[in-house]
Each structure stands twice: as structure tokens, then as C-alpha cells.
């Protein structure tokens, strides 16, 4: 599990051309932490209060839902 560095995320977000904060966060995981495994991403988000809210908003309830979401956004 990764503890999300929200200050680094905010800096990363300033340079992103995407509109959706969740999409930017997923790119941040891939770029800053070099994490692409949906299970690792889900576990990290599920342990963070803001991450939990983002998951709930998209009805992502487990790592399999995260994997499906990532496959849809490719």
C-alpha cells in the first residue's frame, strides 16, 4: 500500500491536461509511484479518506472493479 502524497499530486495536477481528478490521480500513480497494478492502486485509495470518496463516486468497491475501470479507460 502506498500513502498518497497529496502535495505532490497537486503539483502533478497543475501540469495535466485532463479534466477528471480521478483520471489525473491514476496517471499520478503510474508516473510518480510507478504503480500500474489495479490491486495496489485500489488498496492505496481504499486506505485514504479522499481516495475512498473518489472510489465511492465511481462505484468502485473492490480491486476487480478497479481493474474493470482501468480497462474501460484505456
Note the main sheet. Answer: none
User: Uncertain spans, ≥5 residues at pLDDT below 50?
Assistant: none
Morphology:
globular
Distance between the termini: 23 Å
Helical proportion, percent range: 55-70%
Strand content: under 5%
Mean pLDDT: 95
As a whole number of angstroms, the C-alpha radius of gyration is 11 Å
* Strand-pairing-aware structural class: mainly alpha
Give the strand tally.
Answer: 0
Work out the helix count. 5
The helix-strand sequence is HHHHH
Kindly summarize this structure in a few lines.
Helix content is 66%, strand content 0%.
Explain this structure to me?
The chain is mainly alpha-helical. Helix content is 66%, strand content 0%. It is built from five helices and no strands. It is globular, with a radius of gyration of 11 Å.
Question: What keyword list fits this structure?
Answer:
74 residues
Please give the structural blueprint.
Blueprint: H1 6-14, H2 21-32, H3 38-46, H4 49-57, H5 63-72
Helix pairs in contact: 3-4, 3-5
Amino acid at each position: 500500500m502506498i500513502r498518497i502524497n497529496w502535495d505532490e499530486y497537486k503539483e502533478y495536477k497543475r501540469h495535466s491536461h485532463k479534466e477528471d481528478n480521478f483520471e489525473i490521480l491514476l496517471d499520478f500513480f503510474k508516473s510518480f509511484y510507478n504503480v500500474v497494478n489495479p490491486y495496489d492502486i485500489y488498496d492505496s485509495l481504499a486506505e485514504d479518506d479522499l481516495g475512498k470518496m473518489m472510489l465511492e463516486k465511481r462505484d468502485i468497491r473492490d480491486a476487480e472493479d478497479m481493474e474493470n475501470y482501468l480497462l474501460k479507460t484505456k
